[in-house]
Amino acid sequence: MDPIFLFFNLGGGELFIILLIVLLMFGSKKIPELARGLGKGIRYFKDATSEVQDEIKDSIKDTETDSDLNKGSS
To answer: Where are the domains of the chain?
Structure first.
């Protein structure tokens, strides 16, 4: 079972009611647009976090290279 569902302690009936309420509030035409926007937002967040991780890895490599050069010249 997915940990997020365990956190909220939701069963199948509760999820069905939530999905039904969302369907009634937004309508069947608006839901795909909402899902598309949510997907784009998640992708943007993942791209941003991977860029930050890459920058951190690059700075660590640069620091290691600089420290190796300093050790060699001493």
So the answer is: 3-73
23-46 pLDDT tens trace: 888 888 888 888 899 999 999 999
* pLDDT per residue as tens digits for the range 5-19: 566 677 788 888 988
pTM: 0.53
Which one, of 30, 50, 32, 51, lies nearest residue 40 by Cα? 32
Is the Cβ–Cβ distance between 23 and 31 less than 8 Å? yes
Whole-angstrom distance, CA of residue 67 vs CA of residue 59: 12
**Residue 26 CB partners (closer than 8 Å, separation 6+):** 34
> How many degrees, rounded to 5, is the angle at CA 7 between CA 4 and CA 8?
95
CA dihedral 11, 34, 40, 4 (to 10 degrees): -10
Report residue 43 as tokens: 């992708």
